[in-house]
Structures are given as C-alpha cells and as structure tokens.
Amino acid sequence: MTLLMALLLAQAHPCMADAQKLCPGVQPGKGRIAACLKEHKDQISAECNAKIAEFHEEAQACEADVEKLCPGTKPGPARRDCMRAHKDQVSPECRELFAKMHERRGEMREAMQACRGDAQKLCKDVKPGEGRIVECLKSHQSELSPPCAQSMAQ
C-alpha cells in the first residue's frame, strides 16, 4: 500500500493531473516524476508551475547547507542521508523546511491509514498506478468511511 500513500499525497497536489497526463507509466520515486515534469515544463499548468516555484523557494533555505555539508550529492536518498547525518549543523531555516516535510509525511501516513480499508474494500480490483486508486475512492465518495472521507477532503 505504499503506492496508495504516494497517490493520496499527490491527489491534493496541483501537479497530479499534469503528471497523469504528461508522464503516464512513469514509476513514482527517485525523482522520476519530477524529471518527467521538467522535460515537459512548457506543457504544465499554471497551478503546477506555481507549486514548483513555491517548492524551489522553500528549498533555497537548504541550498547553502547542501553545498557546505554534502557537496556533490544529487537530489534523492544520498543527499537526504547526508543531510540527516549532519542535522546538528543545518541552519534553522533548513531545519524548518525539514520539519515541514516531516509533518507532510505524517499527514500522508494518516491519509493512507484512514483510507487503507476503504481502498481494499471498494477498489480491490483497481490496478494501482496513475491515480486510479484515488479516482476509485473519489468515485465512491458517499461510501467512504468518515476518516477516509475527511482525509480525501483535505
């Protein structure tokens, strides 16, 4: 169900529709969706562009720390692990960004747990990927458990 977690996170993200349209079949993880969207930057929506700009602005808080503490690492697991290893040396602004991202992951976990049973019951024959489980859950809005309905509304 880890894919469901990613889908639940993405369902509220303004780039989800763009990713479904422009990057069908691209496996989430390791920055593949972001790379695909970057390849199609002239085709993505204004809402998605705004969200990407917001993310880049937030990420600037860590840029100097990355250069100082983890030079030469590429975005992804290696950089994340390096920054965790140096967490005591990270600037307050970057620490704030990490806290915000940690909070978002917690929200994803809560949404996944809230909808796990609903997905298994209502969408058991739906092939995961490309937002199909989220779409299935949305199509069964009136049948969702209260916790799942609440997490889908956020």
What labels describe this entry?
154 residues; mainly alpha; 8 helices; 0% strand; disordered N terminus
Q: What does this molecule look like?
A:
With 154 residues, the protein is mostly helical. Helix content is 68%, strand content 0%. The protein is built from 8 helices and no strands. It is globular. Mean pLDDT is 80; it is low at 1-11.
Approximate shape? globular
Q: What helical percentage do the residues reach?
A: 55-70%
Number of helical regions: 8
- The secondary structure category is mainly alpha
Secondary-structure element order, N to C = HHHHHHHH
Q: In terms of per-residue confidence, which ranges show pLDDT below 50 for 5 or more consecutive residues?
A: 1-11
The Rg value, from CA coordinates, equals 17 Å
Q: Distance between the terminal alpha carbons, to the nearest Å?
A: 20 Å
What does the main sheet amount to? none
Quick structural summary:
This protein has helices at residues 2-11, 16-22, 32-39, 46-69, 77-85, 92-122, 132-139, 146-153. It has 154 residues and is mainly alpha-helical. Residues 1-11 have low confidence and may be disordered.
Task: Produce the secondary structure layout.
Blueprint: H1 2-11, H2 16-22, H3 32-39, H4 46-69, H5 77-85, H6 92-122, H7 132-139, H8 146-153
